[in-house]
Task: structure prediction
Amino acid sequence: MNPYDHIKNEDQEVFSAITGEETREAEGLELIPSENYVSLAVREAMGSVFTNKYSEGYPGKRYYGGQEFTDQVETLAIERAKTLFRADHANVQPLGGAAANIAAYFAWLTPGDTVLGMDLAHGGHLTHGSPVTYMTKLYNFVRYGMKDIDTGEIDYDEMLATAKRERPKIVLAGFSGYPRTLDWKKIADIAKEVDAVAMADVAHIAGLIAGGALENPLDHGFHVMTTTTHKTLRGPRGAMILSKGTVSTPLKAPEKTIENLPTLIDRSVFPGFQGGPHMHQIAAKAIAFKEASTPAFKEYAHQVIKNAQAMAEVFTTGGVRLITGGTDNHLILADVYGSLGISGGEAELLLDRAGMTLNKNSIAGDTRKPFDPSGIRFGTPAMTTRGLNEEDSREIATIMLEVLDKRDDETVKNAKERVRSIALAHPVPESFV
Ligand code: DSN
Result:
């Protein structure tokens, strides 16, 4: 049976969109560093009967009846997440990364409080205090950034000085456009020095942490860690909040102490911020966490980084300036405008025509506007899931550079054919265990 038989019979228009996307994903290469392919087991859970059920509350403490199986699956997800990330508690209900961050802020902050986070232009995320988000109407966001854009070195002295001056309630570490690693211990110490909660947003690198390829902030004094579940972690679209501390079930709000963070977070997610959890998504998260605990996933996580470093090397040798000079994780940020005279937006379109999907991205100190900045951001989580190695990575980076350099129809057409044959030779595996 085709998995979409019922959609095909009921709704030709949606069927055509789904099959179009299936072909696009099969024949092209996905280089957006926040995207990945999930296993069929994860997709089946997303299409399961759990989508029918309301289950406000938490396992053993729900508002509606009929919860024996929702409790079973949410407990599995919680316990697996705790083991994977060495956390004392996991709230697996956040619907997405923004929701997870907002719920974490609500758990600890009161309006007017200050958060110290990474400068957006230096790789921070929208929910870390972009003026376009509502969070900035409630809280005061102050910044730290790189001392040297060409090495990616963070100015930890400046960070400590800002923390002492601004007295943040949360010191936030995390990024969506920073290709290096952070000194988690140093940041946790800075938070401790000013009695702030140390919060990490590891959405981009959660899979690399789970696979042991990068360090875990929770091992270095962080109290709270938010993440999406669909990027390097290779699970369903969604998020979770991990924390250190004690979980209790008080009838009224517990005292605001760092030890009580797990309970404060649970109350913040529900009933504070969200309604009924999406149990089909939670079932899929449980499966993804099981997959991420296998030896094969460890290998995957290490290969993601090797592949990114192989691509970075080709770009550097080809004369393209990389922000931070290279990569220690899964992503690369290239100054294509400064190096090749093509804007990030034009580069994105050109490479898309050649079957390689990535995104335009601002770079630190960008002189161009955000909708057509100087940089492109790309990465290796999805292509590594397809089994591509360093040699393939070098070949893909070489094709990218040819397209960006020549920019003519013939080059784009040839590139598209080469990309298609690489993609078709490496179908997405149906299972990862
Ligand atoms: N949109 C995600 C990314 O691409 O990094 C973060 O929210």
